[in-house]
Automatic annotation (TrEMBL):
It comes from Streptomyces roseirectus. InterPro entries: Glyas_Bleomycin-R_OHBP_Dase, Glyoxalase_6, VOC_core. PANTHER family: CONSERVED PROTEIN, HYPOTHETICAL FUSION PROTEIN. This is VOC family protein. Residues 2-122 form the VOC domain. It comes from the Bacteria. SUPFAM superfamilies: Glyoxalase/Bleomycin resistance protein/Dihydroxybiphenyl dioxygenase.
């Protein structure tokens, strides 16, 4: 079994796809529209963005409102530089992030529709390179 797609609910699929396209360099799906947009990663994973009427952003880390539901994780070479670039593209910092032991090499941001995603500074390894 192999994961082939991940889809995020949102209010504006084209805008959210544009954010992740700029953030990660993923290729746009040719049949994207205002109801559903998609991107394809260099590894062939399809990331979809579907319009939901009355969409409400997650209230992460507070689970008493709308729970996080899902989040994406990205390895990056330079944590500070990548965080600054993503903030310039429209990401935001959540008001509160729970403490984690490895915090110096880890960040949580929210995409423009409020979905949390993580950045982790890549350590030297034999894993294939990915970029944000």
């Amino acid at each position: 079994m192999r994961l082939t797609a991940v889809t995020l609910d949102c209010a504006d699929p084209l805008a959210l796809a544009a954010f992740y396209r700029e953030a990660a360099g993923w290729e746009p799906h040719p049949r994207s529209d205002d109801g559903f947009a998609g991107l394809t990663t260099s590894d062939g994973l399809f990331v979809g963005f579907q319009k939901v009427a009355g969409y409400r952003a997650p209230t992460w880390p507070d689970q008493s409102g709308v729970p996080q539901q899902a989040h994406l994780d990205f390895d990056v070479d330079d944590l500070a530089q990548t965080e600054a670039r993503l903030l310039a593209l429209g990401a935001t910092r959540p008001p509160h992030v729970p403490h984690v032991p490895d915090e110096p090499r880890w960040r949580v941001l929210l995409d423009p529709e409020g979905h949390p995603f993580c950045l982790t500074e890549r350590r030297a390894s034999a894993e294939p390179e990915r970029r944000v």
